[in-house]
Amino acid sequence: MGRGKRRPPAKVLKRREQVKRYFIRGLSYREMAELLGVSHETIRKDVDAIFDEIYQALSSQEGQNLIAETALQFKEIERQAWRIYHSTDREHIKLQALQRAESARERLIKILQSLEVLRQAPQRVELSVQDRIVEELLRGIHNDGNTDASDN
Prior knowledge:
Shape: globular
Number of domains: 2
Order of helices and strands: HHHHHH
Number of helices: 6
Number of strands: 0
Radius of gyration: 19 Å
Structural class: mainly alpha
Helix content: over 70%
């Protein structure tokens, strides 16, 4: 914490930990507010405080560990999405899983950019995720001969 700032109450710190998890999972501020029983403005302030904390810590080893931990959390979300994709034959679930994987990658890139760890989104990564989604969808269509309209 900076000079002159008091440490927030334990209740606020606990809520911010949950906000971090929800943020990484891609929930909107409105969704987080509803789940936590607080206002949209409270969530906005929590997210601002979380990013302030991250900016302050970036120059330390702790900051580097935080970046690595955040990247691992996003990677796990992406892995889970691919597991779901490969565990079902239902096209709409496959599409949702692919969208979740792409969203996790995009959110990680945006966070790294906002922390100035990554200056510009690497086009190759974004395109490879999009290419993989298209490839997987086409593979599913070719294997089935068509898409199953009942799954939509």
